[in-house]
């Protein structure tokens, strides 16, 4: 179909899907007069191009198409890559030599074009420089950690399974946690006010000592825990006031990650993020979240959730190394998160949430490749979650997703509780779970955190009644759609009070029915 379109030039993303070139060149509709734009420079990642490999692709195309009909380009828009590597004065030199940001990628396009021409002597030095950088990367001790590789090699099937099935775990967790019907919780983060962000900035600039900064964070956690107790939430959170970004925070504490100073890219709308650079084998040297989670738990007799970002989401929301399968990298992250989960359990956390909002967005373009991806993505989550006792309740959170296509894989994740974003769809997104007869507990969101509008009590109750009509009441949790990081405290407090009151009203109705 593409070859029959009335176009002068056809562009191919040969980074995401190199097989497209074979599809075109071998098609019966192929016309050597069609101009092809070869998307060889990765527009989604930050690694230097492999000139040697790219020239082979150009040669393959040039064997069937006149050289004057070939274009050399980026795989896609450079919107997804940072602007200029030259601005990064604090990146380690060894790592920096392997990278190319948008400005450098434009130079790579020009160099590749000229290397493909007969008279290319002027550019041969750049070719050799590129070849050496890629060779250095393959051999770097900074990247390769034998202990991590051995641990991946020794992963067992049992590492991705809980001790008992969900029904057995559910009974033990009900006894251990003693939660009411329709338990209430939040997704994890509380408002990151201007004051909280200012503390972090002052600490980074040396204007606050570590002791002063920690004292401010501790006080904020204490205030938030007391607020949650006062309004009657059942499972509390510490609020994540010490965290900058849900991926960056963990990357800063894991081996194998580096960080740019100016590597901002658009996330969605007007929101920008600065993704970590995942360049090497991933490992965890010490606990990352235990300090603040266990401190918060010490302030209350109610269960408090330990909050973690899952391995697939860390993978998806980083600039990921392209020198090994993504599955391997995912498993490395999963083992690091698993160590954190086990440590949280040891320090008295009976509820642990591992967020995985990015599982669906990682689906390959071609549907025939979905099963392989979902298999290792689900396994990665389970490796991270399955090192705990039956009594420890594992939560996960997903948002931004249509679930119908992957509902079986979500069930295979076997989280004790999944919380999802359903308020804006008036619970329609719940249909996938209902039709599938999702076996575990579920928290359909009743508060749209993307809006400053506070839902009233009646609205929340109506949503919960919809959920109660299609799900076992013993499986329903009551919670917002997502984290409350971007909201202000007044609207947050009022919305959560309404959520608690709605859950209490439903409990009262159930008691009256009995």
UniProtKB/TrEMBL annotation:
Its cofactor is Zn(2+). The keyword Transferase applies. Keywords: Amino-acid biosynthesis, Metal-binding, Methionine biosynthesis, Methyltransferase, Transferase, Zinc. Pathway: Amino-acid biosynthesis; L-methionine biosynthesis via de novo pathway; L-methionine from L-homocysteine (MetE route): step 1/1. Its EC number is 2.1.1.14. InterPro entries: Cbl-indep_Met_Synth_N (IPR013215), Met_Synth_C/arc (IPR002629), UROD/MetE-like_sf (IPR038071). Residues 182-504 form the Cobalamin-independent methionine synthase MetE C-terminal/archaeal domain. CDD domains: CIMS_C_terminal_like. The keyword Signal does not apply. Residues 3-64 form the Cobalamin-independent methionine synthase MetE N-terminal domain. Catalyzes the transfer of a methyl group from 5-methyltetrahydrofolate to homocysteine resulting in methionine formation. PANTHER family: 5-METHYLTETRAHYDROPTEROYLTRIGLUTAMATE--HOMOCYSTEINE METHYLTRANSFERASE (PTHR30519). Belongs to the vitamin-B12 independent methionine synthase family. This is 5-methyltetrahydropteroyltriglutamate--homocysteine S-methyltransferase.
């Amino acid at each position: 179909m593409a070859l029959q379109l009335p176009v002068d030039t056809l562009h191919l993303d040969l980074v995401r899907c190199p097989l497209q070139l074979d599809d075109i060149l071998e098609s019966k509709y192929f016309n050597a007069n069609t101009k092809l734009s070869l998307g060889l420079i990765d527009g989604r990642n930050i690694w230097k191009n492999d000139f040697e490999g790219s020239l082979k692709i150009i040669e393959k195309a040039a064997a069937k198409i006149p050289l004057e009909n070939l274009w050399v380009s980026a795989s896609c828009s450079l919107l997804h890559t940072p602007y200029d590597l030259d601005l990064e004065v604090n990146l380690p030199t060894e790592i920096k030599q392997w990278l190319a940001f948008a400005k450098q990628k434009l130079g790579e396009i020009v160099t590749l074009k000229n290397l493909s021409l007969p008279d290319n002597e002027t550019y041969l030095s750049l070719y050799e420089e590129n070849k050496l950088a890629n060779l250095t990367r393959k051999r770097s001790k900074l990247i390769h950690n034998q202990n991590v590789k051995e641990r991946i090699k020794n992963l067992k099937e049992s590492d991705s399974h809980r001790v008992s099935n969900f029904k057995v775990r559910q009974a033990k967790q009900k006894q251990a946690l003693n939660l009411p019907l329709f338990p209430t919780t939040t997704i994890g983060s509380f408002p990151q006010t201007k004051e909280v962000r200012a503390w972090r900035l002052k600490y980074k600039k040396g204007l606050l000592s570590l002791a002063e900064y920690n004292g401010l964070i501790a006080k904020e956690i204490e205030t938030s825990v007391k607020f949650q107790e006062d309004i009657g939430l059942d499972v509390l959170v510490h609020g994540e006031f010490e965290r900058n970004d849900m991926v960056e925070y963990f990357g800063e504490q894991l081996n194998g990650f580096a960080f740019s100073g100016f590597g901002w890219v658009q996330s969605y709308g007007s929101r920008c993020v600065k993704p970590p650079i995942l360049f090497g084998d991933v490992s965890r040297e010490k606990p990352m979240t235990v300090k603040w989670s266990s401190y918060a738990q010490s302030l209350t007799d109610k269960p408090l959730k330990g909050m973690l970002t899952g391995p697939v989401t860390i993978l998806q929301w980083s600039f990921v190394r392209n020198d090994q399968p993504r599955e391997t990298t995912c498993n490395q992250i999963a083992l690091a998160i698993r160590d954190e989960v086990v440590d949280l359990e040891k320090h008295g956390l009976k509820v642990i949430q591992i967020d995985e909002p990015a599982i669906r967005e990682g689906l390959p373009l071609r549907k025939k490749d979905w099963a392989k991806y979902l298999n290792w993505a689900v396994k990665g989550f389970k490796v991270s979650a399955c090192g705990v006792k039956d009594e420890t309740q594992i939560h996960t959170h997903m948002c931004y997703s249509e679930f119908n296509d992957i509902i079986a894989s979500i069930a295979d994740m076997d989280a004790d509780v999944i919380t999802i974003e359903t308020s804006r769809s008036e619970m329609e997104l719940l249909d996938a779970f209902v039709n599938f007869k999702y076996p575990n507990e579920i928290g359909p969101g009743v508060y749209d955190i993307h809006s400053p509008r506070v839902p009233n009590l009646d609205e929340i109750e109506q949503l919960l009644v919809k959920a109660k009509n299609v799900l076992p009441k013993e499986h329903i949790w009551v919670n917002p759609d997502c984290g409350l990081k971007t909201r202000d405290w007044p609207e947050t407090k009022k919305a959560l009070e309404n959520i608690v009151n709605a859950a209490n009203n439903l409990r009262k109705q159930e008691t009256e029915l009995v």
